[in-house]
From TrEMBL:
Residues 78-173 form the DOMON domain. Residues 1-19 form the signal peptide. The keyword Signal applies. It comes from Cercophora newfieldiana. This is DOMON domain-containing protein. InterPro entries: Cellobiose_DH-like_cyt (IPR015920), DOMON_domain (IPR005018).
Length: 216
């Protein structure tokens, strides 16, 4: 009896943790305002990944640049974000530390199904030194994406809603990519593929272009 209740209860607890951890943060490193969500992957030891989004005030329904920030436990080899809510047919971001764990790479990918994603040239990421760092427990990456909020697949154009909820997919693996010094490296399959919903419009920045222009 107890065992059949546990999966529902743990899903409920995980959702509670997620809702409690959605908030606006003012990032001291980039001076950007982000809307942040924490996605747990293990209840024990409080292991999870934080995803943060900063968007321009004039974010348009035809597509807009974003800055994404992720805070990731050191045990994680790669972490990923699916901009259109899943794995297939949407821009994918894959991030990982290099071989000496002193730098972070962002790789733009695309998959047409549940198969190893290929490099995707429709989106480009700029990783900034500001907001990208590694300490004894976590690594953090901050990157601008151009091309992540609109894409075309099978002739259909999709644009992320700049003000309102969107579903994102996310994934992580405890294993690193085969060659972590290359953004085009082969990557091993994830330990978990999951979803969250977030209103990226809550990460609005009136002076987005000026602030991002100052980042290196
Ligand atoms: C590296 C090779 C990859 C393979 C072989 C692969 C394979 C799969 C498979 C078989 C599933 C369905 C079963 C399951 O949930 O495990 C799945 C789901 C998922 N994958 Fe991947 N995956 C890969 C990489 C990625 C990457 C890089 C991302 C994100 C950046 C990603 C995001 C997801 C998400 C969000 C789901 C659940 C939602 C959905 O089905 O679309 N995957 N993947």
């Amino acid at each position: 009896m107890h065992w059949s209740v546990w999966p529902c209860l743990s899903a409920f607890l995980l959702r509670g943790v997620v809702a409690a951890n959605e908030r606006v943060i003012q990032d001291p490193d980039t001076k950007l305002s982000f809307f942040s969500t924490y996605q747990p992957y293990k209840l024990e030891n409080n292991k999870g990944i934080t995803f943060r989004f900063a968007v321009p005030d004039a974010a348009s329904s035809t597509g807009f640049d974003t800055v994404v920030q992720m805070v990731i436990p050191n045990e994680v080899g790669w972490a990923g974000l699916g901009w259109g809510g899943g794995m297939a047919q949407n821009p994918l971001l894959v991030v990982f530390r290099n071989s000496n764990n002193q730098g972070v790479l962002a790789s733009s990918r695309w998959a047409n199904g549940h198969v190893t994603p290929n490099t995707y040239t429709g989106a480009t990421y700029t990783v900034y030194k500001a907001g990208t760092k590694i300490n004894s427990t976590h690594w953090q990456v901050t990157a601008k994406c151009t091309g992540c909020t609109s894409w075309t697949s099978s002739g259909k154009k999709t644009v992320i809603n700049p003000k309102g909820n969107n579903r994102f997919g996310w994934a992580y693996s405890l294993k690193k990519p085969t060659n972590p010094n290359s953004a085009t490296s082969a990557i091993p399959i994830h330990d978990l593929g999951q979803y969250f919903e977030i209103d990226v419009g809550k990460g609005v920045n009136k002076d987005f272009t000026t602030l991002v222009g100052k980042l290196q």
